[in-house]
Design goal:
The structure holds 3 protein chains of 3 kinds.
Chain A: H1 3-25, E1 32-39, E2 42-47, E3 51-56, E4 70-76, E5 79-85, H2 86-89, E6 102-109, E7 114-121, E8 123-130, E9 150-156, E10 159-164, H3 166-170, H4 172-175
Chain B: E1 3-7, H1 11-23, E2 27-31, H2 34-43, E3 48-52, H3 60-68, E4 78-83, H4 87-96, E5 100-104, H5 108-118
Parallel strand pairs in B: 1-2, 1-3, 3-4, 4-5
Chain C: H1 9-29, H2 37-56, H3 60-78, H4 85-106, H5 114-127, H6 132-143, H7 146-167, E1 181-192, H8 203-213, E2 215-221, E3 239-245, H9 250-256, E4 264-274, H10 294-301, H11 332-337, H12 344-350, H13 361-385, H14 393-420, E5 422-424, H15 426-429, H16 432-443, E6 447-452, E7 457-459, H17 460-481, H18 485-490, E8 497-506, E9 509-516, H19 523-532, H20 544-549, H21 572-581, E10 585-591, E11 595-603, E12 608-616, E13 619-624, E14 628-633, E15 639-641, E16 647-651, E17 654-660, H22 661-664, E18 678-684, E19 687-693, E20 695-703, E21 717-722, E22 728-732, H23 734-740, H24 742-755
Parallel strand pairs in C: 6-8, 13-22, 17-19
Antiparallel strand pairs in C: 1-3, 1-4, 2-3, 5-7, 8-9, 9-11, 10-11, 12-13, 12-20, 14-18, 15-16, 16-17, 18-19, 21-22
Helix pairs in contact in C: 1-2, 1-4, 2-3, 3-4, 3-5, 5-6, 7-10, 13-14, 16-17, 17-21
The chains are: A alpha+beta, B alpha/beta, C alpha+beta.
């Protein structure tokens, strides 16, 4: 190996070592995978552990006297599952229903919330892994409706992703 | 495998006895009254019969009498499960041909110890 | 090995409660003059089982109480002890008491033994020779001194313990030959009777057991053995002399021969040796033996308190609250021994609602068969569906046939599965005879309960929920329906009032009819009260049916003195609501002086509803068939548009509001013309409302699914179902609709009143 190559190798070794160092100081449990989706050109993400499945939009039966963001209920293999239109809930301008419109079926099982619910979004994007370090708290200035559901912010491939708290989304008692 | 016939009209007692005996490695068949026990005994052979006394349809005393008339059960150890009130029933059991008795309430260990006495 | 006995507790509790119900039923049924021995046996066995189980599973207090109960019952069944009405009353109270104790234990609480101890005292007195009535009174008088008993008893108990301790040191209790000699073992002579072997007892077993106690030396005596020809193998001709060296007590040795005491000659003599030859480890057995002479303790027991004894009225037992209009009951047993009438509703509430169900094997087998048939049909259809490239007419025909078969299989399977949840209504009816008896005694009335159709089956949950309403209806009949004996005789009726309870299947429902031959419902009084409360206008005339309907209006209680039993809190409106929540209905009919009758109709199951499918604004909705009174085509001429936006329809002699689901449910506005449209007339809580629908579809059974599982409660909707095409349809709740359309309904009522 030439001197230059040796230096390169050392650099790579150092970087790798730093990476290893970096990752071993992390709590591995703090890494979470997120499913991202699009609404009105903004990227949002939910913890993939809460995602049960993804369906196309269709066959939704309206619920009497429900808030406008509650689209209705669907038949999910025999279970009656309500569907919420996130675009309406977040008061985003357009809520179209076309071939790309998707319903993400979320499932939350905690002490406070234990249910399945679908959320309507424009389209599904990707899955990525996130560790707690990469997550920033949302700015407290933002007073939008969606604010209470935001768990944090992050950046993926140069784009900002708004992370949503599924448990709060599905906690109907506070929003219905 | 040692085979035991356990007879009692109380489901909880039967459950407890069966569980205890099976945990100790015995093969157990249950019956809810004397008549059922007799029918079962005629079709299968047992090394020991454990029976409550007070049961509907056919009580334990009658069961013992009937069993002793069967060739296969002439000398089979038969133990009556009896409470202390019925001390004269204890003797009635013996009079009918029972081998001995186990006094209720009994704990599982006592039951097993007594059974070991009669089954070699 | 240590086995956790708590795993058997649940079964023990369940079977004990069943046993108690059996005891109660048998006691109620017992003819005091000529008691049926089989019934008495059954009562004994039930108590015996509970005693055995409670002892085995560690519920010592229950075992002790049941022990004395069982002892007395044993004597009754042997004929040594008589039984009379007072005795039956006491036994019934014991059943109540036991139920309470077991319920407490089941909820892992400490049972309150006060009542049990009192009853035990009564039974002990009876065993000692007193009559049931006298014993009850005796215990009443002594229970005041109850506090005085305690200290004495614990003292003598402590003495006994001290006594035991003195002797419990492994040294034989045999008369001591002075302190210089020590027991080292026993000489045992054991000669079985000739036929001892016939009981299955084996001398070898006993010898082996002795060997576990210490060192044995055995000598067998075969002198009586006959010659081979005369030898009967079953007979025992041998005897043994055994020398056993052991430190065990004589009790342990005797125990080895316990079973054959009567079938042998047995002598056990201790072997003693000079103590000087042994190391003495004899503890002092001269502990202070206080003179715990029983008589002294007894003497103290009989000391009465210095003050005057409180009268019978101030007894520990709370006296039952009696309606001032009833006659004073002079029966001493009832007065002194009567416990407050236990509210079966309350006891049910504290009992854990069971989440398991017993299913007969026959139902399970039928289910297995049907599933088998379903599998066959499925594979047949599967075969048809695959393989062939070209589909012919014949194939389609076969496919159709297969689908018909599938429908039949599914339907049969559904029926069979539903039946698993079905239990005979006797489970609910069972507690009623006792209740009728207790309450009628309390009220001083004579009432008998006739029950039929107890084996009619219905869904377990429906049955649990109909129990309270039924209890309430029967209490009403006892309280307000059946008159006092004197009144009845004056009216030319038999002194004994009768309540008839009938259950039977009709169509896809179960019908429960409850009728009494009492005084009937005073509709005029109801009307007067309703007028007084402003519910009915002075000028308004009501039909007999409408007057009876007033019964179900909240707040109308016509009883002047509110007795403790009914008329407070729970009203007939709640009864009706409870029944409607079960998708059922209740009707009443009555005739003054003759009696009243209630007819409850319930679906056989809660999970399935007979529904009428309708479409409104392109959505399918389902109305419970029981709620629909009629459907008609709107005649525009009969429609009135009122100021305020309500529309009403003239339906014979009344005006009913015309409701539009799209408006009530905030759906897409549909302003269709009313004339010619379909109107479904729905009845809820005596109120008729008309709902406009686009189309009437089929009537079918639908499976009710809850909206609340993943969403919340929605007013106007009682649930949802999944239709054949997979879409979700809402099941309309008529009561909810009424609350949504309050204004319209009020407006319609005004119209009706104005026109009358």
């Amino acid at each position: 190996m030439s001197i230059a190559e040796q230096e390169d190798a050392k650099d790579v070794a150092k970087q790798t070592a730093a990476l290893v160092d970096h990752s071993t100081t992390h709590d591995f449990e703090d890494q979470r995978q997120y499913l991202t989706f699009l609404m009105q050109d903004e990227e949002y993400g939910v913890d993939i552990l809460n995602v049960q499945e993804i369906r196309g939009w269709g066959n939704v039966s309206p619920i009497p006297n429900a808030p406008d963001y509650v689209s209705g209920v669907i038949n999910l293999r025999g279970a009656i599952v309500p569907v919420i239109d996130l675009r309406v809930l977040f008061q985003l301008a357009d809520a179209n229903y076309d071939e790309n419109t998707v319903v993400i079926v979320l499932k939350v099982s905690t002490e406070r919330v234990n249910r399945i619910m679908g959320v309507v979004v424009d389209a599904v994007s990707d899955v990525f892994t996130l560790s707690s370090n990469d997550r920033q708290s949302p700015p407290s200035v933002n007073q939008s409706v969606s604010h209470e559901f935001i768990e944090g912010l992050t950046e993926v491939k140069g784009k900002m992703v708004i992370l949503l708290d599924s448990e709060r989304l599905l906690h109907l008692e506070s929003n219905v | 495998m040692t085979k035991i016939l356990a007879v009692d009209d109380s489901a909880s007692m039967r459950q407890m006895v069966v569980f205890t005996l099976e945990s100790a490695g015995y093969d157990v068949v249950e019956a809810v009254d004397g008549q059922q026990a007799l029918d079962i005994a005629k079709n299968e052979s047992f090394d020991l019969v454990l029976s409550d006394i007070n049961m509907p349809v056919m009580n334990g005393i009658e069961l013992v009498k009937q069993l002793r008339q069967l060739e296969a059960y002439k000398y089979t150890p038969i133990l009556m499960l009896t409470t202390e009130t019925s001390s004269d029933r204890k003797m009635a059991g013996k009079g009918a041909g029972a081998t001995g008795w186990v006094v209720k309430p009994f704990n599982p260990d006592k039951l097993l110890a007594t059974i070991k006495k009669v089954i070699s | 090995m240590s086995i956790d006995l708590s795993q058997f507790h649940a079964v023990f509790f369940e079977e004990s409660f069943e046993g108690l119900e059996l005891m109660e039923a048998a006691l109620l049924d017992l003819d005091v003059g000529n008691p049926d021995s089989e019934q008495i046996n059954a009562i004994f066995r039930a108590a015996h089982s509970i005693k055995g189980g409670s002892g085995t599973f560690g519920f010592v207090q229950v075992a002790e109480f049941t022990h004395i109960l069982e002892t007395l019952l044993d004597k009754v069944r042997d004929g040594e002890q008589a039984i009379d009405a007072d005795g039956i009353e006491l036994f019934l109270q014991s059943v109540d008491c036991l139920r309470g104790l077991l319920e407490a234990l089941q909820s892992k609480q400490d049972p309150d033994m006060q009542r049990a101890n009192e009853l035990a005292g009564v039974f002990q007195a009876v065993l000692d020779g007193a009559s049931y009535a006298d014993s009850a009174n005796l215990v009443k008088a002594n229970s005041i001194t109850g506090q005085l008993l305690a200290p004495e008893i614990t003292e003598s108990a402590a003495d006994n313990v001290a006594d035991d301790a003195a002797t419990d040191d492994g040294i034989s209790e045999e008369p001591s030959y002075g302190t210089s000699r020590q027991q080292v073992g026993f000489n045992i002579y054991f000669k079985p009777h000739v036929d001892m072997l016939k009981g299955g007892n084996d001398p070898v077993r006993m010898l082996r057991e002795l060997a576990t106690l210490g060192e044995i030396k055995t000598t067998v005596d075969s002198a009586e053995l006959p010659l081979l020809e005369a030898l009967v193998p079953d007979n025992c001709y041998l005897s043994w002399t055994i020398e056993l060296l052991t430190s065990c007590k004589i009790d342990d040795v005797e125990e080895v021969f316990e079973w054959v005491e009567d079938e042998c000659q047995l002598s056990i003599t201790p072997i003693l040796q000079d103590a000087s030859a042994l190391v003495s480890n004899q503890p002092q057995d001269q502990q202070n033996n206080p003179q715990a002479s029983p008589s002294a303790a007894l003497g103290q027991r009989l000391v009465m308190p210095s003050g005057p004894l409180p009268g019978l009225d101030d007894l520990l037992l709370p006296s039952p609250m009696v309606d001032s209009s009833t006659e004073t009951v002079t029966d001493p047993v009832k007065d002194s021994v009567k416990a407050p009438v236990k509210d079966p509703v309350k006891t049910k509430a504290t009992k854990v609602e069971s989440s398991s169900i017993r299913v007969g094997i026959d139902k399970v087998d039928s289910l297995i068969n049907l599933v088998g048939e379903l599998v066959i049909t499925q594979s047949m259809l599967g075969q048809m569906g695959s393989a062939r490239d070209s589909i012919t007419e014949e194939h389609i025909g076969n496919l159709r046939e297969g689908l018909v078969q599938l429908e039949q299989n599914t339907r049969e399977l559904q029926d069979s599965v539903m039946r698993i949840r079905m239990l005979p209504i006797s489970f609910t009816f069972n507690r009623l005879p006792r209740m009728v008896r207790d309450i009628s005694i309390q009220l001083g009335k004579k009432v008998q309960l006739e029950v039929s159709g107890e084996s009619t089956e219905l869904d377990k949950t429906v049955m649990e929920k109909i129990s309270d309403p039924m209890v309430h209806l029967i209490r009403n009949a006892l309280d307000h329906g059946i008159e006092m004996p004197a009144q009845r005789i004056a009216a030319g009726k038999p002194e004994m009032g009768t309540i008839v309870l009938k259950a039977f299947h009709q169509g896809g429902s179960i019908v429960i009819e409850m009728s009494d031959d009492g005084g009937g419902i005073d509709t005029e009084r109801l009307l007067a009260k309703a007028r007084k409360n402003g519910l009915v206008a002075e000028s308004e005339q009501l039909t007999q049916e409408q007057k009876l309907e007033l019964l179900f209006t909240p707040g109308l209680s016509t009883v002047e003195q509110v007795s403790d039993l009914s008329g407070r809190g729970v009203g007939m409106d709640v009864v009706r609501r409870n029944i409607q929540e079960l998708n059922g209905s209740v009707e009443v009919s009555s005739e003054m002086g003759v009696g009243s009758a209630f007819r409850i109709r319930l679906p056989l199951t809660l999970a399935i509803l007979d529904g009428q499918l309708v479409t409104v604004a392109d959505q399918t909705y389902i109305f419970p068939l029981v709620s629909i009174s009629e459907s008609l085509q709107i005649d525009g001429a009969k429609v009135n548009n009122l100021a305020g936006g309500s529309d009403v329809y003239s339906l014979r002699d009344e005006y009913i509001p015309i409701l539009r689901l799209d408006r009530l449910f905030s759906l897409r506005e549909e302003n269709g013309v009313l004339d010619g449209s379909l109107l479904v007339v729905v009845e809820s809580e005596g109120q008729k409302i008309g709902v406009v629908v686009d189309e009437l579809l089929a009537q079918q059974q639908v499976v009710i699914k809850s909206l609340e599982e993943n969403y919340t409660r929605v007013v106007g909707v009682s649930g949802a179902t999944i239709l054949g095409d997979g879409t979700v349809a809402m099941i309309v709740d008529p009561i909810g609709l009424s609350s949504l359309a309050g204004n319209d309904i009020a407006a319609a009522k005004q119209m009706t009143d104005a026109a009358a």
